[in-house]
Design a protein that fits this description.
By secondary structure, the protein is α/β, with parallel strands linked by helices. 28% of the residues lie in helices and 21% in strands. The protein is built from nine helices and 15 strands. Strands 4-1-3-2-5 form a five-stranded mixed β-sheet. It has a four-stranded parallel β-sheet with strand order 6-10-9-7.
């Protein structure tokens, strides 16, 4: 299919304790700054947590909350009228669940891009790759003429990726165009398939490749999260866990919270085995980065972690005095 990302189905039946919605929509927004207030107010009113990014090119973000309230918010967003239109009507949403709120606050931020590639003139609304549904993905990547590219960053690829995928070894998405320039050629790589977490980075990466003359460019509709939802583990080509940008850190093939946590020193995922290493210090460093941390950095990070621990203890103490009925999330 060559149409733009279709609308996803409603959230799955069977409520988790907390529902999580990863959403995006490329759509021209006139005076997008004026939308910040209404969206922020609605999130706070509904006691949702997470972040939404607004730019002239659309909306992107991940938010969480009580299942019925979050569903109602998404419905409200899709019916939100702006400049005589419903710009978010076809917003793509990926649903998952967890036991605790994966975010601590609600934020709506204004950005230049809703996913930052840093290349002027790349517009997924004008040119984009061919969408491939999860059910057809395995057949595509089995084609020996297809080169499979993971568009995510190195720390994400570290914990999971598709079998046979190329890792661009980028620290940020801004580095992806340089990877393309140095490693891909339209003549040598006529068929390119790409994937990312929820689909948004591939909107821009496929548009970029089309701009550079690649004729057959494909991307996984709905990203890894959609693939894990639609394809059984027995048939899956996915290996490992999928990094997510919230306190869960990763999700497994059942879209449940995975086994990783995050090193607050270097930002890379860490396992229980790494935490058992003598070089690991919570909130300070992990075996990967411990040898590069200066004494001053250790001091600042320990102080930061002390403040975080104190704040969490205060919140836990305050929660113990609330009405138990209010602690559904």
């Amino acid at each position: 299919m060559t149409d733009h990302q279709s609308n996803s189905s409603d959230a799955p039946e069977g409520d988790p304790v907390v529902l999580v919605a990863a959403l995006y929509r490329f759509t021209p927004l006139v005076d997008h700054e004026s939308l910040q207030g209404p969206l922020q107010d609605r999130m706070r009113k509904d006691e949702l947590r997470g972040s939404l990014l607004l730019a002239a090119e659309g909306i992107n973000g991940t938010i969480s909350g009580r299942p019925p309230v979050l569903r109602a918010f998404v419905q409200w967003l899709r019916q939100f009228e702006h400049d005589g239109h419903l710009p978010f009507e076809a917003t793509d949403v990926k649903w998952s669940g967890c036991d605790e709120l994966p975010f601590r606050r609600a934020r709506v931020r204004l950005k230049k891009e809703i996913v930052t590639m840093g290349v002027e003139g790349i517009d997924p609304l004008q040119s984009v790759g061919t969408y491939v549904d999860p059910e057809d993905w395995n057949s595509l990547v089995d084609d020996p003429d297809v080169i499979l590219i993971d568009t995510r960053n190195d720390y994400e690829v570290e914990i999971g990726t598709f079998a046979g995928a190329v890792n661009p070894k980028t620290d940020t998405f801004r580095e992806f165009p340089k990877f393309v320039e140095e490693n891909l050629d339209p003549q040598q790589h006529p068929k390119v398939a790409m994937f990312c977490t929820g689909g948004i980075r591939c909107e821009k990466s496929t548009a970029y490749l089309k701009e550079r003359g690649f004729s057959e460019v494909y991307h996984l509709r709905g990203g890894i999260l959609n693939y894990l939802e639609k394809v059984s583990p027995e048939e899956s080509r996915w290996r490992g866990e999928c990094f997510v940008f919230d306190s869960r850190v990763s999700v497994d093939h059942e879209l449940q919270a995975g086994r990783y946590s995050l090193c607050h020193g270097c930002g890379w995922p860490v396992t229980a085995e790494m935490k058992a290493d003598a070089k690991y210090e919570h909130g300070v460093a992990c075996p990967r980065c411990a040898d590069e941390v200066t004494d001053e950095q250790r001091r600042r990070r320990r102080e930061r972690q002390r403040q975080i621990d104190e704040q969490q203890a205060k919140q836990a103490n305050a929660a113990s005095f609330r009405d138990p009925q209010s602690l559904t999330i």
